[in-house]
Amino acid sequence: MLSKEDNRRLAQLERQLRREDPDFCARMRGDLPTRRRVPISLVLAGCVVWAAALTLALLGWWGAAAIAGVWGTVIVAALAYRCRPGRPSPGPGLLPPPW
Questions:
Q1: In whole angstroms, how far apart are CA 64 and each of 21, 46, 55, 61, 74?
Q2: Which residue, among 40, 64, 44, 45, has the nearest Cα to 53 in the 3D structure?
Q3: What is the C-alpha to C-alpha distance for residues 29 and 27, in angstroms, rounded to an integer?
Q4: Secondary structure class of 96 (helix, strand, coil)
Q5: Whole-angstrom Cα distance, residue 62 to residue 59?
Q6: What is the pLDDT of residue 23?
Q7: What's this model's pTM, rounded to 2 decimal places?
Q8: What is the reported pLDDT for 22?
């Protein structure tokens, strides 16, 4: 249990934080979705695979071109799923928080 003085100081710190960084406070309350960065590695992988599919199609290897096209589409779908708005951010680790 906090004393009256500690409660007063905590309330003062909360007011100061709300005044200085309202976006942080909104994220802590869960009001604002966190911005997720687009993973550039997935974008590059999708571009490389689609370029390979086009090259294979021009060379006449239709089966390989179709397979590469499907994999390029899978990569882009994974990118779209990962970066869609309204989805909670997975955070830096793979495991959920320990609480």
A1: 53, 16, 10, 6, 15
A2: 64
A3: 5
A4: coil
A5: 8
A6: 81
A7: 0.51
A8: 83
d(CA 75, CA 82): 11
Where is pLDDT greater, at 39 or 47? 47
**Looking at residue 58, what is its pLDDT?**
94
- Please, which residues have CB within 8 angstroms of residue 75's CB and are 6 or more apart in sequence? 42, 45, 46, 49
Residue 98 token pair: 């320990």
Give me the residue spans of the domains in the chain. Answer: 13-82
Q: Are 53 and 69 in contact (CB under 8 A)?
A: yes
Largest CA distance in the chain: 79
* 59, 78 Cβ separation under 8 angstroms: no
Tokens matching residue 14: 């909360």
**What whole-number distance in Å separates Cα of residue 76 and Cα of residue 15?**
44
Give me the amino acid identity at 23: D
Instruction: Round to whole Å and give the CA distance between 71 and 53.
Output: 9
CA–CA separation, 75 and 50 (whole Å): 10
Amino acid at 19: R
